[in-house]
Design a protein that fits this description.
The protein has helices spanning 10-37, 41-62, 67-94, 99-120. Helix 1 (10-37) packs antiparallel against helix 2 (41-62), helix 2 (41-62) packs antiparallel against helix 3 and helix 3 packs antiparallel against helix 4 (99-120). It has 4 helices and no strands. It is mainly alpha-helical. It is elongated.
């Protein structure tokens, strides 16, 4: 039996899986902080949905299902949207570029690089086992 591959490079698979598990832990901690500070239902529901997405993404990457790549792309695009929204609202509110915005800009570049790497090294062709043997055995 051949080993199923999601990414063509093993390091991309390992880093993607570690990032997913780490982000799920961060989302869980964010939910706990939101509950302790005061209940903001919209923020709590949004973080909970992203946590569920991250857990499904982790599961599909562990079992090496191709849906893991789709969920990874959705997760990274959501992170990119949230980071760009925070960056734009910060620029509108303070009209300055400082160290806080520098971190957000680096986060945007990191997310864009991650999107590029995930899509560049994904396995495009699904390999089926023993396709040639179908119909050749006589019972």
């Amino acid at each position: 039996m051949k080993d199923k591959k999601v990414f063509s490079k093993k390091i991309v698979y390992v880093v993607s899986l570690m990032f997913t598990i780490f982000s799920a832990i961060l989302y869980l901690m964010a939910i706990v902080v939101r509950i302790n500070d005061g209940i903001d239902f919209l923020g709590l529901i949004l973080i909970s949905l992203i946590l569920i997405l991250s857990l499904f993404q982790s599961y599909f990457l562990i079992v090496k299902n191709r849906k893991g790549i789709l969920l990874t792309n959705i997760h990274l695009i959501l992170l990119l949207c949230f980071t760009l929204f925070e960056l734009i609202t910060y620029f509108i509110a303070y009209r300055t570029y400082d160290q806080g915005t520098n971190g957000m800009v680096m986060g945007v570049f990191f997310i864009l690089a991650s999107l590029f790497i995930v899509n560049k090294f994904k396995v495009l062709k699904v390999e089926y086992e023993d396709v040639e043997e179908i119909g050749t055995r006589n019972d």
